[in-house]
Write a structure and sequence with these properties.
Blueprint lengths: L4 E2 L2 E2 L2 E8 L2 E6 L5 E3 L4 E4 L17 H7 L18 H5 L20 E7 L2 E6 H6 L2 E6 L2 E8 L4 E6 L1 E2 L2 E2 L2 E3 L9 E4 L5 E3 L4 E4 L12 E5 H7 L4 E2 L3
Parallel strand pairs: 8-19
Antiparallel strand pairs: 1-2, 3-4, 4-5, 5-6, 7-8, 7-18, 9-10, 10-11, 12-13, 14-15, 15-16, 16-17
């Protein structure tokens, strides 16, 4: 998700009908600039090279989202949420409309990954591996990262695990419990809510971990855009 405010001015966007390596290309109505979904910036036109401000989001189930935000607003599609026209595409072996650009058989092309991009350093975490190991203390480039995966809702969250310049090491407290899952850091024994990264008890109570830039994607799409990506293997 991106902010529509660019250089202090609000813009509105539409679908251009174009693709770059199978990824959506948007355009804005004010300048007709073309914008790459994956690159997060303008690629042709008046605002080419301008980066969009990223707004962190959670890709999760509707039930989980309602638990987190019971007063949320939802777009009324008059019942059209009941079916997914792309269900067959998720299950077949095709790599998008125009095929894959680079071959990389470290994973099946339709394997789902959460891709992380920090200062140009990229790493992909397969959801299959995260199902077996839902709390990952890792580094991407020089940044200390925490990946948390809730298998019941398919929700992957990536945080910067440094607080006041000090990296923390996290573990589950007990068993996963949906949005009530708690993590504990080894350094201070503070307790943290896994779904929002906020410390609720202990020395660091009130601190909130910053979200890291992440993207839920098919493996074939992630590695096409990031051919030098690292791959987490558990």
């Amino acid at each position: 998700m991106y902010s529509r405010t660019i250089n202090g001015k609000e813009h509105t966007f539409g679908v251009s009908g174009k693709l770059i390596m199978n990824a959506l290309v948007m355009y804005d109505h004010q300048t007709d600039t073309l914008w790459s979904q994956f690159l997060r910036k303008g690629v042709r036109g008046e605002l080419a090279g301008t980066e969009l401000e990223v707004i962190p989001v959670i890709q999760t189930t509707w039930g989980t989202w309602k638990e987190l935000h019971p007063d949320t607003l939802v777009l009324d599609k008059r019942g059209r949420y009941s079916r997914d026209n792309y269900r067959g595409y998720y299950q077949d072996g095709r790599a998008g409309v125009i095929g894959e650009t680079f071959s990389d058989d470290r994973l099946e092309r339709k394997a789902m990954v959460v891709g992380v991009d920090i200062a140009g350093n990229t790493k992909a975490y397969p959801l299959g591996a995260l199902s077996d190991n839902p709390v990952v203390n890792d580094t991407v480039g020089e940044s200390h990262t925490l990946v948390y995966f809730d298998d019941s809702s398919g929700t992957a969250l990536v945080y910067d695990r440094e607080v006041d310049g000090n990296p923390l090491t996290f573990r589950l407290e007990g068993e996963p419990n949906g949005i009530l899952t708690v993590l504990v850091d080894e350094e201070t024994s503070s307790r943290w809510m896994a779904f929002n990264g906020t410390a609720i008890e202990g020395e660091l109570k009130g601190q909130t971990l910053d979200r890291a830039l992440s993207h839920l994607s098919f493996w074939f799409a992630w590695k096409d855009w990031n051919p030098d990506t690292e791959l987490y293997s558990g």
